Amino acid sequence: MLTAAALVVLLGWVALAGSVVGWVIDAIERRRLGRVAAQIHVTDAVHGVLGPVVSPTVAKHRGQPWTVTMGLAPRDFAIAGSLAEIAREALGREAKDVRIVFVPRPGS
Length: 108
Fold this sequence. Notes:
By secondary structure, the chain is an alpha+beta fold. The protein is built from two helices and three strands, in the order αββαβ. A hairpin with a 6-residue loop joins strand 1 and strand 2 (66-72). The termini are far apart.
């Protein structure tokens, strides 16, 4: 009888551990898919207004605002304000605060 109880307890712990691991993996995947969806949304908004001038990347870290990074060539500095506004509007409802980062475009 004691062996059966030990087996039930052991199987219960294994099931609990499996559930916790599944929950953690699901949470990580939901966060990743949220970042991908935000990046697609910002990219579509920029391309809809200005055309394919940049390819923004979007990141979100726990406790920090959304970060949108865009590579700009020196000749494109004139549209930096428009790009920042488009990115803020694209993430507006999802994000209270958005950090826009412009980096030099490689090879430009």
